[in-house]
Amino acid sequence: MLPAGTFLSPAPGSAVVAGNTEVSQAVCNALLGALGVCASSQATMNNFLFGDAQQQYYETICGGAGAGPDFDGASAVHTHMTNTRITDPEVLELRYPVRVERFAIRAGSGGMGATRGGDGVVRRIRFNAPMTAVIVASRRTVAPHGLAGGASAAPGRQWLEHADGSIEFLAGVDQRELQAGDSLVIETPGGGGFGVAKSAAHD
Known about the structure:
There is one protein chain. By secondary structure, the chain is of the alpha+beta class. It has helices at residues 19-34, 89-95, 198-202; strands at 47-51, 56-60, 98-106, 120-127, 131-136, 157-161, 167-170, 173-178, 183-187. It has 3 helices and 9 strands; from the N terminus they run αββαβββββββα. Strand 6 and strand 7 form a beta hairpin.
């Protein structure tokens, strides 16, 4: 039983959010890291929401899995609690005034090591109508950790590319009013590496 009033057992009335999406990721990674099972995964569900008064959409975006003592981490996957599927681009574009302009592996974002962490992804969505967009994500300032000498992965980041060409970087938890022609780009974190890479061991 958890002590009352702690981070994982807040008192009734406390301001809480994303317990099943962000906090659960942190708990999984802490336990797996403490047991030496594998390095940190992307450690976030990269929650992304947009909509207006008539329609709303919510997705979680995949990233990199952490490496273990005898396996590389997988790229562009959901890990731990975030076992969800993302909407097909054709369906998303049919139902909402958006266009998926890019959805690709974020090459090189996984941590190096004797075994390598998986890579995150890049997701770019252009809006064809005014919308409110919200992101709730972690591992933006603290990178997913490596283990046993493995390197940390690249942290996530996100930004707005406005129709006028200007760029505005967003925090991990942020909200913006978007106009037609604006694009939101999300780069999800990779997974941490495990063990010392052979090249580093010989240096």
